[in-house]
Amino acid sequence: MNGKKPSAMYSQTCAMCQAFGSNDKSEYTWNEQFANIVSHAVPAIISILLTLHTYNQAAPQESTYVLIYGVGITICFICSSIYHVAGIMKSEWVPFFLMFDYSAIFVNIAASFTPWTKMALAEHVVGTLVFYVVWLMAAFGIYNVFFKHFPKTKPETLYPVMVSFSLLLIYPLYLSDINYQAIAWMAVGLFWFIVGFVCFVKEKKISYGHALFHTLVAVGNFTHWYGIYNHVIYDN
């Protein structure tokens, strides 16, 4: 902290992070932090460009859901990058940005469900149900991160629970008019998310494990994006 007394905000955010078992991951080396930044800063730029392109190409009734999806993913990449920039600068705001990083993952996961539930399964009750459930879980997760007095559930526990709701979509998607390739791309994206989550949990045992986690999350997101663009928005 460069010899300065920690600010009240820093002390408060540290306490809030510690309340649900998180820390500022200050054990990252400079090279690891640089890799952590690049592995989500580059996808953030790509995500912005893809969001603009897809939004302009989508039909009016689909543009809102495309925007939710693109913005949700982009926010995750940006918050992650800012958190690691703060880390490499040894900023006292690291715990504060960590909470935004955790919260943005909830937004990312919920946003990832939106095109599948509101476009591919717009007329199916399961799609509507899953849409509301995952967004309510995202809201709960974010509230859980920021409010110290709330009963704490670790984000690492909630993330896979949210992702598991995608299993409920497979059969309705199979019965729908959607191209089967869309389901295949969704499954491939889920695979990368699962592998990425394993790297996240085991990152201390893997060289550049967090950057690898970032990369796999980006691959999973862009895999889904490809499937949505080509087989949900356009049936190619």
UniProtKB/TrEMBL annotation:
Zinc among keywords: yes
Membrane-related topology note: Multi-pass membrane protein
Superkingdom, taxonomy of origin: Eukaryota
Membrane is among the record's keywords: yes
GO function term, MF aspect, one: metal ion binding
InterPro entries named among the record's database cross-references: AdipoR/HlyIII-related
GO annotation, cellular component aspect: membrane
A Pfam family it matches: HlyIII
Annotated TM spans: 34-55, 67-86, 93-113, 125-146, 158-176, 182-201, 208-228
Binding residues annotated for Zn(2+), in chain numbering: H84, H210, H214
Keywords in alphabetical order: Membrane, Metal-binding, Transmembrane, Transmembrane helix, Zinc
Compartments it resides in: Membrane
UniProt-recorded name of the protein: Hemolysin III
Organism per entry: Acrasis kona
